[in-house]
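The freezer alarm interrupted the setup, so I double-checked each line after restarting. Inputs confirmed:
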Amino acid sequence: MTDAPKTPNTTDGVDVVDEEPQDAESVADQRRRVHEIWVSGTEERMPFASTTDEGAQELLPRDEEPALDIQLGVTVEDDFVGPEMVIDDERQIINMGPQHPATHGVLRLQVELEGETVRRVKPIIGYLHTGMEKTAETLTYAQGSTNVTRMDYLSPFHNELAYSLTVEQLLGIDVPKRADAIRVLMTELNRVASHLLWAATMGMDLGMVSMMIYGWREREVCLDFFEKVTGLRMNHNYIRPGGVAADLPDGWEDDVVNLIEAVTIGIDEYAELMDENPIFLDRTMGVGVITPGECKQFGVTGPIARGSGIDWDLRKAMPYSGIDAYEFEVPTGLHGDVNDRYMVRMEEIRQSLHIAGQVLETMPPGDYRNPDPKVTPPPRQRIDESMEALIHHFKLFTSGIHVPEGTAYQSVEGPRGEIGCYLVSKGGTRPWRMHWRAPSFAAVQALPAMMTDSLIADLIAALASTDPVLGDIDR
Amino acid sequence: MSDVTPPVEEVAVDEEAALPRELPTVGSIAGLLEAFPDATFTTRKYASSETVYHAISVPVSDWVVFAQAALEAGFDAFIDLAAVDHFGDAPRFEVTVNLLSMTEANRVVVSTRVPYDDPTVPTLTGVFVGANFYEREAYDLFGIDFPGHPDLTRILLPDEWEGHPLRKDYDIGAIPVEFKAGSADL
Amino acid sequence: MAGVSSEPGFLMSTLEKGVNWARTQSMWPASFGLACCAIEMMGTGAAHNDLARFGMEVFRASPRQADLMIVAGRVSQKMAPVLRQVYDQMAEPKWVISMGACASSGGMFNNYALVQGVDQVVPVDMYVPGCPPGPQSLMHGILSLQSKIMSGEINRSTGVF
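Predicted 3D structure, all chains:
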């Protein structure tokens, strides 16, 4: 802060001085008093006191460093630790969330403002901590899909796929070709559904309420297909270790054709609405920029990294489930701003629909799950005929899948980036430890790099563009 | 809060002390292993894929310097950091970091073990900024100390929480479920 | 109320019906979205299911402007005080719908991190089962709550009415 003349009634909302100030000293004193109430921590109403019972983590005091320097990593201590909080006349700390319409759930941001400009941001998470990793240790491998599908609730199929692949890696088994194709179909359509919801909520955050309606209109088409295949609109528990839970229903080809057509028409409409829209462009271009180096340092992957120009997609680089057999392109951006992320996601919808169309043409016949009776339950009619099948069925559902000792990590390209599952097995039917590599966790961590020194309105745009899912972050 | 934040000046010295050898200049994973003879190395294969990744175990004294060498060997994307409680085994805690080379499409999963009475792993935040939240998570859920970390506070649980719930000796905290189905007043 | 005296009693009970009707048809939900259920709550408000048919489409971000809290998702120990604070800030009369298994009973996550049922934090008027409940389930829950308010079964008498 320089000693430039200050406008008296910009901040605080408490002691607003409307008339001409008598002398500059008194106004400064007045505002300092207000700051003392809000910042220095003697008053009971101070919102960030660590004695509050809602898990208050504070923006740590800092010295007079201008802004977050943590982008480069080496200077990280300079930012967070300083001798005293410098009380500046126009600085104020406001709290956004955990109950806020633009935080996509229960994310909480502590924002230090200088007028309208964001000087520091601290994301505070944990308001949706569900203890899923602990619960996973009490569930068998067969039950695990039920648990993980509720993690990133906008991409349940990807969670199930990452989990199933990791268990299969430990078991050392493969799944039939048809199961792979079904997995690819469902995950790619899930990517479409997730990006549609992102477009809807992002449109609403940027003031286009009609986008909310349109995005949901197309998403419902996807959800209807998911419901037909899995029985549920969300949290499907469909992809399981050894294959998928059930074969695709009759007439699924027509549904996929209709879905591709409906969504293609829909995203063309979105393009008409947004691509050339001057308001949208003004609010997104050059906003929330993150560089490729920062992406790598923070572990940001997925559309955000691709928007910054990193040509990295696990589907191409470390292909799984035979996805390299399909033809698709990986869109990348140039500037790493919100608009590039928007363009990348819209193109990813098109590419995913393209993949789904190819799966439709090349869906192999055959079994939809591994025939190993130690992993998948026998067909219903076999139980009536065979004593052995009955025993396998009983053992599978009472004790579960026996997984050999070992450690495994496997990841898939989710709608938000790399979704990875890290499993430690000590033998037996339950995981010893399950850890999830959550893409939104890394993205939230990178929020300060995107938001520092931007305006509050741009903060909303940057936050929306990262597409955070709190269930994924907090687990 | 203040009692869990480590004093920074002290541990900065510690971190310096953890860098005894000069950084090896290695261009590949083979060179990386040559430079660290104490590290054990296994290769694992993904399921339904031909892709492999490398699991490397290093002693805790080499932790930061290995990460630095891996960064310079091209594993420059920080993907994940996880802790494991091997309850019953001798060095009880394991910390695993997952690094990715986007240019070579290669992945290393580096792990180290620390004992129960001194669960201390030097922080990686000086090498990868992204380790910040992940180390806070490991601290929160496992109680592993990362000296040198700028803001080692609880991240997922409330600040006043006691204990570290993902340790194996921490109870899951389930309450018994009472099924009332079939009672007349439903 | 009807038992105070005969003539005013007739008037009062009719007025109460009118008040109940007004309350029923102008509920404004606070958008208290937490987890998976919040997505389905949004879906209920969106074009396909169109909650506006029941006079409910105005999801309010500020609890001061809302009188129905739909607790959509799992409530963690860390979130519970926030939830209570938001509830306290809502205008009387207010109602709470507990949406989904996690909010109602902890669901499948019976562990250290979750509040095992949001009724330990705020009084709940209606439980909507499902994981997550589909839009139809939520709409059914809302309509059931409306009919209970209309019939006077759930009464938030503050002394004025």
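Quick read of the result. Residues 6-25 of chain C form the longest helix (20 residues).
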